[in-house]
Specification:
The protein has twelve helices and twelve strands. The chain starts with a helix and ends with a helix.
Length: 354
């Protein structure tokens, strides 16, 4: 009844969305603040009659708006139904088993191996440094590979590479192999490597509206890079679904990126709350990896990560536990509003005193 491909699938496991009680959700890296008021005003004013027509399959106005923000022509921009769909198209377009394994960090976004399984792409996990940061040297020392992908900041660690380190990587890699920098969390203090796409034709940047712009429920992602890479993604899209972004999403995303003041205010608040939380945790003796994301990765000597996750959940606080060898005592904590983080810190004290 089912195909061999289907039987071999191991799907991605998203963060919990339990409905049995009210939780402080610090487990899925959602933005704790609402999107631009311009988005809300638009959605309230929508004439449902527009829904009888198909949306623009090229999302031209949205691509032009993104291009204006990043100083790129629309021909260098691709949009899709969330960055996960954009990444899926990337895996299909740029990587295959005939050219060797895809390289990504040993601890990274857990959707990458899922895509590899789905598209039958071999992969190799590249070791992190002892401080859990990415070593670009480790990538260009590899001789046989299909391509390279990693988040920057990395997930779940939160560690960050400066654009000059990305440039070093690009200068030392095969120009016929695509390198994808997944910048889902770049809005929280890091500097995007988008400008490097003008120098390196094989560099692709993938971003999302889900985090910095509070539109996780809208599902809009995009890629920025050389026209040939963007054209390839368009070919994949049109071979799968010519209309991935609905009309409401296209307009709301445009308004969101145009409201620069709201975007800066929201991300600034999250950065300040992250700094407050990190300082408080370190004063309590917790190890906190340096983070430029809207989450932190923490552990404490003698504290079992799984037990901590369960105890926090019992107290009504959801965090993310991965349990992978090497990070089994870490939990990932999304930065919520300050009141949420104060409650989280108090619960840590309560749990530790038992």
């Amino acid at each position: 009844m089912f195909s061999k491909r289907f039987k071999q699938l191991t799907p991605y496991t998203p963060g919990e969305q339990p409905q049995n009680r009210d939780y402080i959700k610090l487990n899925t890296n959602e933005n704790p603040y609402p999107p631009s008021p311009m988005v809300g005003e638009y959605l309230k004013s929508v004439d449902p009659d527009i829904l009888k027509l198909y949306p623009d399959p090229a999302s031209q106005e949205l691509r032009e708006t993104i291009g204006k923000f990043y100083n790129l022509p629309s021909s260098k921009i691709f949009v899709g139904n969330g960055s996960d769909e954009v990444l899926s198209f990337c895996f299909y377009a740029f990587f295959d088993k005939e050219n060797g394994p895809l390289l990504f960090p040993e601890h990274s976004y857990s959707f990458y191996p899922v895509y590899c399984s789905f598209y039958d792409i071999p992969f190799k996990r590249v070791s992190l440094k002892t401080n859990f940061s990415i070593s670009v040297d480790s990538y260009y020392k590899e001789k046989n590979y299909s391509g390279i992908i990693f988040p920057n900041p990395n997930a779940p660690t939160g560690t960050y590479l400066e654009p000059k380190e990305i440039e070093q990587l690009m200068n030392n890699t095969d120009k016929n192999k695509v390198v994808i920098i997944d910048e889902a969390y770049i809005d929280f203090g890091g500097k995007s490597a988008v400008s490097l796409t003008n120098k390196f034709d094989n560099l692709l940047i993938v971003q999302t509206f889900s985090k910095g712009r509070s539109l996780a429920g809208l599902r809009v992602g995009f890629a920025l890079g050389n026209e040939k890479l963007i054209s390839a993604l368009t070919t994949v899209k049109d071979s799968f679904n010519s209309y991935p972004l609905d009309a409401l999403a296209q307009k709301a995303a445009r308004l969101s990126i145009e409201d620069i003041d709201h975007f800066k205010d929201n991300t600034s608040k999250i950065i300040k709350t992250r700094d407050f939380t990190v300082k408080a945790l370190k004063e309590k003796g917790w190890e906190v990896l340096p983070s430029m994301a809207n989450f932190i990765f923490i552990r404490n000597q003698g504290v079992n990560g799984l037990d901590l996750y369960k105890k926090l959940k019992d107290e009504g606080v959801l965090v993310r536990y991965f349990g992978h060898p090497g990070i089994e005592d870490f939990i990932r904590v999304t930065i919520g509003q300050k009141k949420d983080m104060v409650t989280f810190l108090k619960n840590l004290d309560t749990i530790g005193s038992r």
